[in-house]
Amino acid sequence: MTSKNQTSCTIVIFGATGDLAKRKLFPSIYNLYTKGELGEHFAVIGAARREWSHETLREKVEDSLKESKIQVNDDLDDFLTHFHYISLNVTSKESYQNLHSLITEVEGKFSIPGNRMFYLAMAPQFFGTIASYLKSEGLTNETGWNRLMIEKPFGHDLPSAKKLNNEIREAFREDEIYRIDHYLGKEMVQNIEVIRFANAIFEPLWSNRYISNVQITSSETLGVEERGGYYDKSGALRDMVQNHILQMVALLAMEPPIRLSTDEIRSEKIKALRALRPISGDQIDQYFVRGQYGPGAVKNQEVPGYRSEPNVDAESNTETFVAGKLLIDNFRWAGVPFYIRTGKRMAEKSTKIVIQFKDMPMNLYYKSNDEVHPNLLIIHIQPEEGISIVLNGEKLDYSPQTTPVKLDYAHNSTDKLNTPEAYEKLLHDAIKGDATNFTHWDEVALSWKYVDEIDNAWQQKKATQFPNYEAGSMGPKESDHLLAQDGFHWWSLDE
Ligand SMILES: NC(=O)C1=CN([C@@H]2O[C@H](COP(=O)(O)OP(=O)(O)OC[C@H]3O[C@@H](n4cnc5c(N)ncnc54)[C@H](OP(=O)(O)O)[C@@H]3O)[C@@H](O)[C@H]2O)C=CC1
Ligand SMILES: O=C1O[C@H](COP(=O)(O)O)[C@@H](O)[C@H](O)[C@H]1O
């Protein structure tokens, strides 16, 4: 018997021999199994071109669990019997008949009532083809539910994203499509709503009346590793800002939804994204800064510049760093800059949001030479998770002066940098049919529209002289000027 918490379904992973399946998906599925979320009425079918047998896939799954350092229990053998493999080429129509037969076979074997999850862990050029064959070859079931989980990148710009969306919408309804943004699976990104909407002390202050600026940093110490081919055509704006950063902006800026349903939350996020002020070409330098790393040292290790990375053009003008000032033109946020920055080969691996509050109208402790310390709310996304609040307390030296005092509720992350944790949550939600932490097409389209304008403005300008920041630094100095022109500065990642 399946308990009411367990969902019976077949998960078909296209790209099961690839990196994502090995590092994220298999460990996540195992965690869901050991936590009792999957029960016995489920099956996983791995699909890719390699000539693997069911047994090879099971061995690879076991290896992936070992490599992920997951605690494996004595349920492992039972778990592995749920895995099956089919060698196919996704571009060949005939493959889908064989896959259909295998799905029917496993549905019989594990008494699965036709619920099918199709996970596209493959290069994006295949997304449309797979979706369309799934429909035309009759793999989308009439008796159970059908869901399509689709990896990033969702297009390269707005026109290509629209084209892809039209292709998949021919086969799947919007409510059947789960577009992944793995940041939405992170514990503290999900917590933004809780911090805002479950704490009476924050929401009344959450506007231009009390907040002076918001800062979002997502910095990485890694370079492009083995993804130079993809990254050189993408750059930081498309790779990080269009999706993860704008999703965090939307969660911070949205109005409280009338209830916590997928549709209501998405609708508020969409409104926030619609209010983003477009940046015109002649204003671009006042609002956005791009950078590319040169050689340097990260954590005392010498590393090469971006242009010397494998599969990167030796004269590449792709940005590996972006900083920006976003303005949200609505009643709540008019006049409050949202500063964002993200980049590769920076000094720290850290994702952090700092909400800086306005100063007191009259600070009784203020002396003309004293530094005024604003109150800060810091949301630590990774590697620590939690929040800190920076207040002013009395200096313990009999002087009528204040000193910043930090209240910390932060702990070391179990979600270690893009680990199975986020994927586990997202897989769990998708299996349960909860699309809240996935991106609706309107969010994707609005994000591309915003980002395309920045990219167009950059294309029309003379290219910035790259490289313009040293690996191991916090990006080009122009990123500091972006805030300095408004009288602010980036808060340190150690805050
Ligand atoms: N790896 C990661 O950490 C992340 C990946 N992603 C996204 O996930 C997706 C997959 O990435 P990743 O796993 O790294 O990619 P890989 O290159 O490691 O894997 C690609 C997979 O596609 C299969 N494949 C390629 N061509 C065909 C074909 N014609 N027919 C059937 N199978 C095919 C390959 O198997 P075979 O050669 O056996 O056919 C392989 O299993 C991409 O969209 C990526 O952007 C997103 C976030 C993180
Ligand atoms: O989507 C992506 O995200 C990772 C960063 O993810 P994180 O969870 O480690 O912060 C980034 O390295 C990659 O380039 C990008 O495609």
Describe the structure using short key phrases.
alpha/beta; Dihydrodipicolinate Reductase, domain 2; 2 domains; 13 helices; 34% helix; globular; binds NADPH dihydro-nicotinamide-adenine-dinucleotide phosphate; binds ligand LXAUTJHC
Describe the protein's architecture and organization.
The chain is an alpha/beta fold. The chain has two domains: about 5-150, NAD(P)-binding Rossmann-like Domain (Rossmann fold, 3-Layer(aba) Sandwich); about 185-485, 2-Layer Sandwich (Dihydrodipicolinate Reductase, domain 2), CATH 3.30.360.10. Helices cover about 35% and strands about 20% of the residues. It is built from 13 helices and 18 strands. Helix 6 links the parallel strand 5 (about 145-150) and strand 6. It starts with 8 loop residues before the first strand and ends in an 11-residue tail after the last helix. The model is unreliable at about 415-420 (pLDDT under 50). Ligand LXAUTJHC binds near residues 220, 239 and 418.
- Major sheet strand order: 8-12-13-7-14-15-16-17
- Please outline the major beta sheet: 8 strands, mixed
Under CATH, the homologous superfamily of the largest domain reads Dihydrodipicolinate Reductase, domain 2
Which percent range describes the beta-strand content? 15-25%
Q: Measure the end-to-end span.
A: 51 Å
Instruction: Look at the helices and sheets and give the structural class.
Output: alpha/beta
**Low-confidence runs (pLDDT<50, min 5 residues)?**
415-419
Shape: globular
Bound molecules: NADPH dihydro-nicotinamide-adenine-dinucleotide phosphate, the ligand O=C1O[C@H](COP(=O)(O)O)[C@@H](O)[C@H](O)[C@H]1O
The helix fraction, in percent, is 25-40%
Number of strands: 18
Query: How many structural units, i.e. domains?
Result: 2
